[in-house]
Each structure stands twice: as structure tokens, then as C-alpha cells.
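no rush on this but wanted to send it before i forget. theres a chain ive been looking at and ive put its sequence and its fold in C-alpha cell form underneath. please have a look and point out which stretches look like helix strand or loop to you. thanks a lot i owe you, the record is right below:
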Amino acid sequence: MRLFHFSDDPAIGVFTPRPVRIPSARPPGRDWLNGPLVWAIDAWHQPMYLFPRDCPRVLLWPTPDTTPEDREQWWAGRSCRILAHIEWTWFDRLCAETLYRYELPVDPFESLDDAGMWVSRTPVTPLHIETLTDLPAALRAEGVELRVMENLAPLRELPRTSLHTSSIRMRNAQPGW
């Protein structure tokens, strides 16, 4: 297994645990997830972070529980493993952004059993850093079909389907989300 952290900073020598920027409501006993942590994503789920940091995006993929109807509606004739949606206002930034993919050691991390997210409560020194300058190509290489829309609001109902849906940075989306 491989774990990564994505950043626009090319010079992180050590990841120091820090609290999240905007705390989330957490289930009872999980409030520690708003406290000081180092966050990582596993290799399969890394396409969720091949975007500028604040870019609102909606990604979806089938799961073993996806119904034939949802699979037909969203995947008919497609060979991609993930569909990613962004707004046109972010497309130029996506194309121009340089990201740094830090590979992290697995040892200090614990799985959250949630869309490939892992956390460490202790500082973490990266193993390797890779510069990514063509994010659309990186998405394609990961089996992601990118869809660009005027507004992501029509996707609001996706969590009610049988697909896995990850909506990230939606506070930055066009009105209507």
C-alpha cells in the first residue's frame, strides 16, 4: 500500500500534525478528527486530490452495492473507474496548477475506513516528492473521466444514488450547491 499527501508547497520536510482549517461535525467519540493530525490518502483514492486545493469537485464511482440502473445511467459505455466534475471557472486553474505529491511512510498512519483517508497523530517525514504539472493528464492516467460544468448544483442528488460520491470544497462552488 502507498499513502500520499498533495500540496502546492514543494518544500515540506516534515508534516507536523495540525487541526483542520474548518472543523466538521463528527460522530460521538470522533471529535479528535478535528484535532492535530497529518492527513494522507491511499493510492486508489488519490485522484480526489489531483485538483487545485480549493477547487470544488464531485467524484463518483461504482461500489459493489451499485444498482444496475445507476451503473447504466452513469457508466454506460465508459471504461473509466471514476467520474470527476468541476466547474468551468476552475478549469484554467486546473490546467495551470502545479502540485507536489508527497509519498509518506505507512507506519505512523491509521485508516479512517472512509474513502481511502488515513491520519497520523505524530510528525511524518516524506519518503519522496513528485512534481505534477499536467493535472488533466494525471487524472486520465488514474482512469478518471473529467467533466466540466457551469455549475455543480445538478449533482446535489448524487449521494442518494447507490454510487460512492465524494464532494470536496463545495463551499467554493457556484451558488446552488
